[in-house]
Amino acid sequence: MEGMKVGFHGQVRQYHQFKPAIDAAIHKVLESGVYVLGPKLEKFERDLATYCRMQEAVGVNSGTDALWLVLKALDIGPGDEVILTANTYFATAEAIWIAGSTAVFVDIEQDTLNMDTRLIERAITNRTKAIIPVHLYGQPARMREVTGVAKKHNLHVVEDCAQAVGARGNDFLLGELSDAMCTSFTPQKTLGCYGDGGAVLTNHPDLAERLRKLRNHGSDHRGFYSMGYNSRLDEIHAAVLSVKIKQLDSWIEQRRRRAGQYIAGLAGTSLKIPSTVPGFRHAYQFFVVEAEDRDGLQAYLGSMGITAFAHHPVAIHQQAGFPWGQSARISGSLERTESSAARVLSLPLYPEITDEETNHVIRTVIAWDHTRPELGTPG
């Protein structure tokens, strides 16, 4: 519909939909006088562990902190190497650098944009200590293959699940095959709070206990401390997340339905649309297409009132702030990573987006595509 505006996020709509429950949860925390490491965090940690079917959940300040605190807890530090991909959010590699370790980048699969597990083994050296597979945009990585290599070489596996809570493989749950799974609760996430937040999930109680001490100045008892950090998920965020987690499966199914609408509607265009591994449950944190003229498509959508974002448009190793030297190395070519980074564009996708708005996006993309027949065959 001409003149229709479609925003990228639906947090405000979502807040108004669940306003009474969210406001009541926040009010209870304010009235309680307990704002840090209290009963609301304990409850949310139980809720999250139950939802993910994991034994332990540890709330921390952010998804970034979740990653590097796990590395610290696993004694991964200076002189060690950690294998990952370069088409993810900068924080995945940043966590490795905070721990003092070296990030080793391998290329991605052409279809899923997740780690090409065939390339892991050739990146391993006698300094390699861990692999961080990223479940990018909500698509689970091939965890059976990742953990197969890890077991062969006695490596740790830490899953970056910041974009994929609620996703799963065909015969595995996210988190069950690794040492730990890390996630984020920033506002744009399907399960998001109203600021920064994160968590670590694990089936290893000893690791969870170490993380609980590390997040709280090395303390598990007031007045007694050892070396640690300040990284705690506060009570207000935890209370809000306990309200929202009840809706998570419904929200994911709404995202999947809208993704299906996009896939059907954009078939036959020159765009490369998301590919799902058969049997895997894609959580569709983002609906990411690839276009030869990504910037042109983004600008055209913007001119038509549609907000689209390029998530990770510059690969980590191509960032101006990339710390070369002892902090990072590349294993083999990152040709697919670089090609994808230059092409990716996320279309609006959230549980509150309407049929009319989704169809407007589809029609607008098709209109743009019809003006550019030279861009190739349908993706």
Give your account of this protein's structure:
This protein is an alpha/beta fold and 379 residues long. The protein has 2 domains: 20-246, Aspartate Aminotransferase, domain 2 (3-Layer(aba) Sandwich); 247-373, Aspartate Aminotransferase, domain 1. The chain is 37% helix and 12% strand. The protein contains 13 helices and 10 strands. An 8-stranded mixed beta sheet has the order 1-7-6-5-4-2-3-9, with helices on both faces. The protein is globular and about 65 Å long. The two termini are 26 Å apart.
Helix and strand topology:
Blueprint: H1 11-17, H2 19-32, H3 39-52, E1 56-60, H4 63-73, E2 81-85, H5 90-98, E3 102-106, H6 120-123, E4 128-131, H7 143-153, E5 156-160, E6 180-184, E7 198-202, H8 205-214, H9 235-244, H10 248-266, E8 287-290, H11 294-303, E9 328-330, H12 335-341, E10 344-347, H13 355-370
Parallel strand pairs: 2-3, 2-4, 3-9, 4-5, 5-6
Antiparallel strand pairs: 1-7, 6-7, 8-10
Helix pairs in contact: 2-9, 3-9, 4-5, 10-13
Give a summary of the structure in a few sentences.
This protein has 379 residues and is of the alpha/beta class. It has helices at residues 11-17, 19-32, 39-52, 63-73, 90-98, 120-123, 143-153, 205-214, 235-244, 248-266, 294-303, 335-341, 355-370; strands at residues 56-60, 81-85, 102-106, 128-131, 156-160, 180-184, 198-202, 287-290, 328-330, 344-347. The protein folds into 2 domains: 20-246, Type I PLP-dependent aspartate aminotransferase-like (Major domain) (Aspartate Aminotransferase, domain 2, 3-Layer(aba) Sandwich), CATH 3.40.640; 247-373, Alpha-Beta Complex (Aspartate Aminotransferase, domain 1), CATH 3.90.1150.10.
